[in-house]
Amino acid sequence: MRFARPAWCSFVAVLLLTVAPGALARQQPTFRSTTALVQVDAIILDRDGQFMEGLEASDLTLLEDGKPQKIEQFYIVTHNPATRASLIAADAEGRPAEAAHRLFVLVFDEAHLSPESLMRLQKGATDFIMQQMGPGDVGGVFVNGELHQGRVTTDRGALLSGVRAARPAVEHRQSLLAAFREFPRIPSESDALRIAEGSHELAQRLARDACRAEPVLCEVEGFAEGVQNKIEQKARFYIRSARVLADRTMETVSAIADSLGQYAGRKTLVLLSEGFFAQDERAAVQRLAGRAARAGVTIYSIDGRGAVSASGTSDAVSPGAGRSTHFDSGEEGPAILADGTGGLVVRNLDDMTRAFSIIGRDTSTYYVLGYSPTNSDMNGKFRKIEVKTTIDGATVRARKGYMATALPPPRRLWK
User: Fold this and answer.
1) How far apart are CA 51 and CA 127, in angstroms?
2) Across residues 292-308, what is the average pLDDT?
3) pTM here?
């Protein structure tokens, strides 16, 4: 995926200017907000997995770094899929809440998408725009290293044009991984990383195994020593290339999250990818999730590979669905981003329209909790957030924390 940093120079300006005036005029109550306020979107489900309505702030406990925080704002946002209307309830003290709206940025991670995956995701994205985005929803499509047409918009035609503009990268993750399957084989990314970091013993063992399995090819490559050299070269090339691609993806997500941070309300980033190499960058991915969470951005991810479990028929929206990851361990990066910001990873599902529907439904009804941290020092460090409830059988999904950084003065997306 080509990353065009200059495209983001105008991103902040065009966000405010490209939404049709009056599109949400009926939903424009005023909203008290400060850059110090931390807001947490929370999805609370009963034991049957159904969203629990009618809760009050007293039903929840919010902790930051283990210390209780006073919930100053509490309200529910509901988007009716039948009428496409957005409703918002004022908090317990009667203070009006911000306008209910949804902002989606679909990010086509071309460097981590095979052509087949890209086509599946384009079909699902098209159906999502046509069937699930309502009049009050705003969207943007990030393709080929830039925001399509340099804007977010309510114009479905422009969004569909962005989806169609996505193109597969010449060199992508699956094309790099294909070398693992060729003689001499490397069993996994983890093995490649160990070899690239200097494990000659592992390279020697793999060379011996390769020569026992394919003696003729071993002779062509110069026997065990030549095979070992090729394994080491292959591992170093893959790790170097995978790191470059992963850094570009993370840079893109970071730029989008930073640009959206000044706007109030729920911002949803949907990463369309097959995963990226994060085995030696977990800490960096976690920090990125913390920054996105501070900006109020929830990250979802859809795995474009479809159903690749042992049975070939199962689907899941959580890790551990029995996927085949013999060579590829790239699922960890999107999982960290989604878990850290309160989103989901939708994987092992062939029907991409359904995959997008899961995200659309998940972003349709949620509680918003606002609090001013007792630790007011925005020192740039990560702070852990926990939202708990005493309601029997209920589960809570919310962002795991945030980076304690000051936000720019808030602006409205709609005038």
Assistant:
1) 25
2) 92
3) 0.84
